[in-house]
Task: inverse folding
């Protein structure tokens, strides 16, 4: 949406992605969306040229039935065990559990992929999903963040508009947007049960957000986000140019989206759950540095610095 958004562009600073300062507005993203292949490795190509073109243009892509229904059933059994006893889940996983603002039910659970017996962790980092990330990011990848998001029927609260990269750059130290999310749909995602809303094409623009969070902002932001929310004027410009789309799909589908794509979700007041597994893949060449706009990095379970094993390492070219 270059023409529509031109008036909102501000000059690039020494950090192209400066945010959480006095600087606000939006500017064109200088980095690739689909990254060139790293030399020396054989990068898989599971996505067709048309799928890759849609991802590059729109910033997201829904891939149908990547995971079989038997695997989905196992995931449901595991998450229902978590949901069945919130106190036990909180006691077992500690700060890796985020409750809804009213404290009544689970909102998110982080880093279950590190649990060797987690079905959801195993399936969400399996080769059919990882190979899509390897193709888009142009080489070997690891998990930057893993979370189970639960929008419980009648009770799930929404998420404000944001770019994941804006938060990961400012609070975690992610250098460039060479990362992406793969969302495994556990339930049917409908427009009425809190399905992800996205602004197509918004991934091409970086929106600098006002305000500077205090120490340990993550303790409240995982339940209700305040800092890192773009301005309404910029959101309106991009939405007018690209529309707002609900990412609906069936259990076993995988939604992949760029880490700078603007997205949100409404609260779930429907009688249907919307439970999804978000796995964030980062290039091995884009590991976290010191946070760009925070005093201290967030905890390991939110942004991995230590647990950075390469997933399904690529074969070297001969």
Result:
């Amino acid at each position: 949406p270059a023409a529509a958004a031109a008036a909102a562009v501000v000059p690039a600073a020494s950090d192209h992605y400066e945010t959480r300062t006095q600087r606000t507005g939006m500017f064109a993203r200088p980095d690739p969306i689909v990254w060139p292949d790293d030399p020396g490795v054989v990068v898989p190509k599971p996505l067709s040229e048309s799928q890759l073109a849609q991802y590059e243009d729109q910033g997201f892509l829904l891939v149908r039935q990547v995971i079989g229904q038997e695997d989905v059933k196992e995931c449901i059994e595991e998450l229902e065990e978590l949901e069945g006893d919130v106190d036990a889940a909180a006691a077992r996983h500690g700060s890796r559990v985020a409750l809804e603002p009213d404290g009544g039910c689970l909102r998110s659970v982080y880093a279950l992929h590190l649990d060797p017996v987690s079905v959801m962790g195993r399936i969400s980092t399996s080769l059919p999903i990882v190979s899509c990330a390897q193709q888009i990011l142009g080489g070997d990848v690891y998990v930057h963040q893993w979370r189970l998001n639960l929008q419980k029927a009648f009770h799930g609260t929404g998420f404000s508009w944001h770019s994941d990269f804006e938060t990961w750059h400012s609070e975690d130290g992610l250098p460039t947007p060479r990362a992406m999310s793969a969302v495994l749909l556990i339930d049917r995602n409908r427009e009425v049960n809190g399905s992800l809303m996205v602004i197509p094409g918004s991934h091409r623009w970086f929106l600098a957000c006002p305000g500077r969070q205090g120490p340990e902002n993550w303790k409240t932001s995982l339940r209700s986000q305040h800092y890192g929310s773009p301005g309404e004027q910029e959101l309106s410009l991009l939405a007018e140019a690209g529309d707002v789309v609900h990412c609906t799909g069936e259990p076993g589908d995988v939604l992949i989206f760029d880490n700078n794509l603007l997205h949100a979700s409404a609260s779930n007041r429907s009688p249907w759950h919307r439970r999804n597994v978000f796995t964030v893949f980062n290039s091995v060449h884009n590991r976290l540095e010191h946070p760009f706009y925070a005093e201290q990095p967030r905890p390991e379970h939110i942004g991995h610095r230590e647990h950075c094993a390469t997933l399904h390492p690529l074969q070297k070219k001969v």
Remarks:
- Confidence is low (pLDDT under 50) at residues 1-12.
- The first strand starts at residue 25 and ends at 28.
- Residues 79 and 271 are 18 Å apart (CA to CA).
- The chain is about 25% helix and 20% strand.
